[in-house]
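This part of the workshop introduces the protein records we will be handling. To make this concrete, we reproduce a full record directly below:
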Amino acid sequence: MTMPLEDLGERLAAAFAPDVLRREIAHGELMVTVRRDAIVRVLQFLRDNPACGFNVLVDVCGVDYPERAERLEVVYNLLSTTRNQRIRLKVTTDEQTPVPSATPVYSAAGWFERECWDLLGVYFSDHPDLRRLLTDYGFEGHPLRKDFPLTGYVEVRYDEGQKRVVYEPVKLKQEFRSFDFLSPWEGMNEILPGDEKATGGEGSK
């Protein structure tokens, strides 16, 4: 399987010499990093070229690397059902720079890109309907970014008195980040059955 993947990587690098930034084979898959502005042309080449035949867009997802200048990485997973091959394309961007939408090449990219926008804040230019997909209306922030707090900012509940959904600041009974994992019964004063053995109480030997 390695040789066909190497041949595919070389073919792609030859067709898009200035746009292919990096290519490697890992875990039995070819991974190619391309320039952001070239992603649509590369996807169309992989779909339409008879030597490639990547006719299925399996997924579009994102990764957040806060330490990088372009912290956001968009990953495209493609499948060739005729050749039984997979390829993974990657592009990088920041919080403001849009990535060209893949919907003109793969219509399935529509919902994948909406999810990537919703959860990571990657903006896709020329997307026909770029809006949030999983979070609520009026949601602020992007939950899969590394700097998004694990507890979120607000909590949602239905208020029976007001007969509507209300938003309230998150209230935790215990400070989330200082949770004592060695003391799961923190806050309980009574001794649970069996705990008296550990403290030398009644029944200990």
